[in-house]
Amino acid sequence: MRVTPQPVRRQVEERLREAIITSRFMPGEHLSDRMLGDVFGVSRGVIREAVRLLEAEGLIKVVPNRGPFVAFLSAAEATQVYEVRAVLEALAGQGFAERASTEEIAELREVFEELAATRPGTDRMVLLNLKRRFYGVMLRGCRNAYVARMLDQLLNRNSQLRATTLSDPKRLPQTIAEIRRIVEAIERRDPGAAWAACREHVHQAAQVALRILNQQARDEAAQGLEVALD
Amino acid sequence: MRVTPQPVRRQVEERLREAIITSRFMPGEHLSDRMLGDVFGVSRGVIREAVRLLEAEGLIKVVPNRGPFVAFLSAAEATQVYEVRAVLEALAGQGFAERASTEEIAELREVFEELAATRPGTDRMVLLNLKRRFYGVMLRGCRNAYVARMLDQLLNRNSQLRATTLSDPKRLPQTIAEIRRIVEAIERRDPGAAWAACREHVHQAAQVALRILNQQARDEAAQGLEVALD
DNA sequence: ATTTGTCAGATTGTCTGTCAATATGACGAG
DNA sequence: CTCGTCATATTGACAGACAATCTGACAAAT
Lengths: 230, 230
Fold this sequence. Notes:
The structure is a homodimer. Chain A is mainly alpha-helical. Chain A has 10 helices and 2 strands, in the order H-H-H-E-E-H-H-H-H-H-H-H. Chain A has helices spanning 8-21, 33-40, 44-56, 75-99, 102-116, 124-141, 145-157, 159-166, 172-187, 191-229, and strands at 60-63, 67-70. The A-B interface holds A 4, 6-7, 45, 48-50, 52-53, 55-58, 64-65, 77, 80-81, 83-84, 87-88, 90-91, 95, 143-147, 149-150, 154 and B 4, 6-7, 45, 48-50, 52-53, 55-58, 64-65, 77, 80-81, 83-84, 87-88, 90-91, 95, 143-147, 149-150, 154. Chain A binds a DNA duplex through residues 4, 7-9, 32-34, 42-46, 48, 64-67. Chains A, B: It holds the Pfam family FCD. Chains A, B: Keywords: DNA-binding, Transcription, Transcription regulation.
């Protein structure tokens, strides 16, 4: 078996993507190519290529002559992301119900049970990783590389927001119930029900996420007011 | 007014994208960075950055240690693309019906009338450009940058196939009728009908496209047989 | 005190040259 | 005809350089 080692560029892409998704680089932060070159121990050329890729994925926003910045997700954009996510996730669920193997369905159930077994107060990163595994199975099993790639990008794009909503202790049981409906529809091989359950799940998540975003906006406005009154 | 000239890199990205979409570079063709550097008159670094971006858009496939190639769309992939396009286009149509301004609706009608007025035998590129203008209005008016970006990528990805199906003289009246239904639903501000009409339009296009793809596959198989018999 | 102007320093955008690792294609041996 | 071997071309990656542009600070002017 021929094993081609991954080029340095790919490793940098992955590490940088992961760093942004896990908020090791904060939204709005300036990603100077020299600085990144030092951090990752590679040349500017490699960094610039990796940045271009993550720019196309929407994780990085490049301002001409000022360089790359970690993309910031406004409330308006979040609304749009959830709108698209709803239909793509529905399509993925439908495809999975139609085309996944019985082994893949069992695997989905397995990950779901792990998620359902978490106790309140579980670390948000643990929860997010479980959910990511769930999506991993889903996107492989739906047999559509395009929906997989696009949905993956969207999930990365608002992973920070998802970590927040997912770890809301009051919301978790509700979330699990929604996902259970997805899994059950898939086990029944009912594409229509899977579609509807996925869509409903994203809609519910959007509700919570937007409430949190608006709350944050209010907080910041209040803080801005305090600062102004200093 | 501050006018920042577009960086060379952006121009190369655009020109390369356009060249691939319009089949000036054929699918499967090897895009050596030195060669592209000569063609566009820029350094390898700029080319490599542009390639990375188009790679993320799916127009270019990079093989490790062999470089970039113009992406090839198999019949299986085309099926997947149409599946995703159907829901994204439906979402765009729905959003347009809900949120576009009356001026934008008038503009959509205008472009549609131009398309409807074409006579049989019109050049495929003229038709494709009209359809691109139609989508341009649609994607701006749907007020969702994410669905716009993703749908744009998908449309670029299979523009070659679209040019073929659009210019099929037997298919054109049918196509126009489908698009008329979209425009009329939008003019009625009926999001549900717009959704359904868009979906139906893509489904129909997919039927034709896949028939053509399978026909091509048969042709190539036959040709391969001849060659084998030489 | 606020605005405007200027200037040094840092960063981006781009080019050139270099070098190791890998793939390609031709050539000759078996 | 098939299988190694080798020269050549290309990719992947690095370093250094330099003009254009942005930033932030400080000085001048209103």
